[in-house]
Amino acid sequence: IFWAVEKPAGPTSLSLVLFSPLLNLQDNLPTVRLLFPPHLLGQGAGWSERGSETAMEAALLGGFIKVILPRLFSLIDDKYKLHRGVKSDVRFLVKELRMIVGAIDDDELSATSSAAARLSIQDLRELAHGIEDCIDGLMYRATWEHQASFLRRSVRLRPPRALKTGAQLAREMQRLRRMAKEAHERKRRYAADFPAGGQPSSATQLVDESPSSPSDPRILDADLVGVEGPLAELLEQLAEGRPSQLKVIAVVGFCGLGKTALAAEVYNRETRSERFERHAWVYAALKSPREVLADLLRKLSSDAPSCQGKSVLETSDVGQLCTELKQHLVMRRYFIVIDDIRTEDQWKTIKSALPADKDISSRILVTTTIQSVANACSSSNGYVHKMSRLDKMCSKQLFTKKACPDKYSCYKQPDPAEVLKKCDGQPLALVTIGEFLQAKGWPTGPSCEDICTQIGYHLENDKSFEKMRRVLIHNYSTLPSHALKACLLYFGMFPSNRPIRKKSLLRRWLAEGFVEPQPSPSSPDPIAAFNSLMDRNIIEPINLSNNDNVKTCQTYGMMREFILHMSISQNFVTLFCNDKIEPKYVRRLSLHESSATVVDSFSTVDLSLVRSLAIFGKASQTVLDLSKYHLLRVLDLEKCEELKDDHVKDICNLLLLKYLSLGGGVTTIPRDIVKLKHLVSLDVRRTKVQILHVEVFQLPSLIHLFGKFKLTDIVKPKSEVHEFLSKGKSNLETLAGFVTDGSGGFLHLMGYMNKLSKVKILCELPAGCADRTDLKEAIQQFIEDEKQANIGSRSLSLHFGKCCEELLNSLKGPCYLSSLKLHGDLAALPQFVVSLRGLRELCLWSTRLTAGVLEALSNLSYLQYLKLVADDLDKFVVRDQAFCRLLRLSLELQCPTFPTIEEGALPFLVTLQLLCKDLHGLSDLKIEHLKHLKEVTLDPRVTPTTRGTWEKAAREHPNRPKVLLLKSVDAAQSELADYTIASEPAESAIQETSIPALLNQGLVASSSVMREQSTSVLSNMGLSEVSSALT
């Protein structure tokens, strides 16, 4: 006989139902109602949240199982030499896991908030983790045996401690099979505790429910702080009458930034004016297009007797509503706000119901959290305003207003430093914590520091945090795939105060198995996953390169706190900071700053099953003993301060390693690295390694190699490396940072690397060196044009001195490159550059760029991005129709010798960057000739007069382009540079200035266009460019 707990009938009661799994007597047994004090029931809150947490646990488990299923199925392959009985166990577990995923996807598990459901999910998670451990154990054994077979004749090998015997693995598979059956039996015995249909569960309701209530601008009680700049911008966009047609203004940003409050302020001001004949405000979240149209007609019907009645609106289809709305709005000037629109299809239907607007100048304002929806709404004669977070001053003002009652206005205000850091300028978070602090009785209640220390607990349990909690849960739960949820939780591996390098992040996602190199129905590729999170504004770019590609990013504020809570509570990430570590069983371990230096802290932690290890700062010798980690796939030690050569000697026994990034004081990479047959990415840019063993090129899975290194040995004919490369076995795509003196056998072997798509070569040719044949042939082979329609991305970066000019001029066409960077003195543009097919990006660094070079550049008809870095430019005129496809132009000069731009030149230029501290006024640049210009970027050191002149010119331009300021980043702290070259003005050492602060001062506009363009550039990349986008 068992008891089951039903959903509470009231705030102080529970229903306990008696039933027996052996007899079908449940319907005939009485219900016993017991009364409990409110504190035992969580103050009446938390039921739906716990249900939602069950749903999120199930979704994360489903994603994890989908990752390990292909690996489990691969064990049946003959290369693993499994016993027939073990293969039968594997097939059984494959079928079981597929059924589990099907149950999760069908919401059989995730749609219930019962305790039994959560225990069932815990059972299944333990089973899935056990299966993954067994899979990796088998793979480790197979890899070791394969390597040992070549050495047994000459060396007596001792198997590593991580190696399990075949009998041990067979017993483990039998144990897992029993676990699967037992989990199934437990679920069947207690099946009465799972809903069998009927009303949707609380979890389902929460996932489908909007994070905020339907908005009404008349009753919105918002404390508007720091919105003067954005408000003036939106009102100016409404008033602008050029051209005289319908204009759609989209306000986009993450939940809780104040989009609705800002839109309400605009709406209320406009309703008090007589500028528009009709006004309407509708709430679109979770409504069908038909419902939105019906609501719109109801709102517009207050002063239109001809509008049909309520019953007709409820029965009309979309076509009838569109017709009615067109008749209602035709030849009338209207202003409509559509709050929280979430899909492009929703907008397309609404747009089809709007009448043609000729010489009327109606306006529509939409708010959304999704960038692609904002772009779609404003695609034709529209405007996108990207919401910014509040600066420190405005954040403090809003928080203090909410936290401190008026009667304590003369009392010393609380120190908000920790709160401001946690909230990170998000108004909803500031209001939430401020109201919570006041409710707890400030100043006698808890301090700001106390609240921030336990922010995870408050976020999960306190009623005051309910709206914030719902916003965060909604953003996580509505991610369209399990893979995206795992990718988001992986941000918990990184410290909050460090920007995350995008390309390194994508390579780690691949190594973890969250995403695939090629997209599939169940898993996106890494670029698509990143773009999806960017599109939803869940993560934000921190640094952008000159061509608007995202270089670093991070999560912020309460979203980061939510990610940490979720990743830790699901044992997805184990975070060690402040000398605290939670579970004994660890799969992903991240050590932050200098808190993991105590040896005893890890005495009870089993490190043998860790799959991902990242260290930021110092760590104890126990943690750095890599012999303890048997199944590592990701090892990130580039920010480990005390890493030495002795620590990396055991790396070569990490046979399943896929991603390796080193730093610290490492000066050499062991020759035995050739044992890492699964290694995909090797990054030694932040080490002191100057010499690399040629054996690294024998790694069969290696795709990306980063550093600044020479090779130790001359590659001899018939050597193992020569044989490996000459047979076309190399999968290397990125070779970034190879230093050469122009000769050597390896340069000849580069021709065998048929998959190379990105090469960076630093030429250190001795003075008077005449023999550069090997270097010339290597470059010539790499740039050779195969005349294929879709070669894909191919990038070459050359750093050279004066003695290489002859080498560059000796390169012949036809050749193909999509991106070229030349760093050195250029007296003339090498002839092969002019003959390049497919060249879209070109960067030139030189002391002086002559008129001849500039004239030759103007003939590159396919060029889309051009960056010129020099002390000065020769006098040059950009003629009519020159650079006919150029979209972005960046000029970084010491002297303000800018070219003259004729009308008709640069006809499609979108972004213009003028990075010169001595720029004076417009410098004779006539931007009115640039018809498609959307953005101008200036050096932050220009004078206020010059900045004001450019802002005035931008306001007078038909497109009203943004005027942005950039600031240099300390090269020592730059997260972006591929490697450090003292003489190079790093392209990545450019960072967007504090736009939120400048917005509130009215200095510059939001950077929405910049981020919109960078997202669209990434979204349009082909599948063949996925790997190159990771380099």
What is the helix content?
A: 25-40%
Radius of gyration, taken over Cα atoms and rounded to an integer in Å = 31 Å
**What composes the largest sheet?**
19 strands, mixed
| Class from secondary-structure proportions | alpha/beta
| Span of the ends, CA to CA | 61 Å
Shape: globular
Strand segment tally: 36
Estimate nothing, just give the exact number of structural domains: 6
Strand content: 15-25%
Draw up the topology in text.
Layout: E1 2-5, E2 13-19, E3 31-35, H1 47-74, H2 84-105, H3 115-148, H4 166-189, H5 202-208, H6 228-239, E4 247-252, H7 259-271, E5 278-283, H8 289-300, H9 310-315, H10 318-329, E6 334-339, H11 344-352, E7 363-368, H12 371-377, E8 383-386, H13 392-403, H14 417-423, H15 427-439, H16 448-453, H17 455-461, H18 466-477, H19 482-489, E9 500-501, H20 502-512, H21 526-535, E10 540-544, E11 550-554, H22 557-569, E12 574-576, E13 588-592, E14 612-617, E15 634-640, E16 659-662, E17 681-683, E18 691-692, E19 704-711, H23 720-726, E20 734-740, H24 745-749, E21 758-763, H25 773-783, E22 795-799, H26 805-810, E23 815-816, E24 819-823, H27 831-834, E25 836-837, E26 841-845, E27 848-849, H28 851-857, E28 865-870, E29 872-873, E30 877-878, E31 888-893, E32 900-901, E33 911-915, E34 935-938, H29 944-956, E35 962-968, E36 990-992, H30 995-1001, H31 1008-1019
Helix pairs in contact: 1-2, 1-3, 1-5, 1-18, 1-19, 2-4, 3-4, 8-10, 8-11, 13-15, 14-15, 19-21
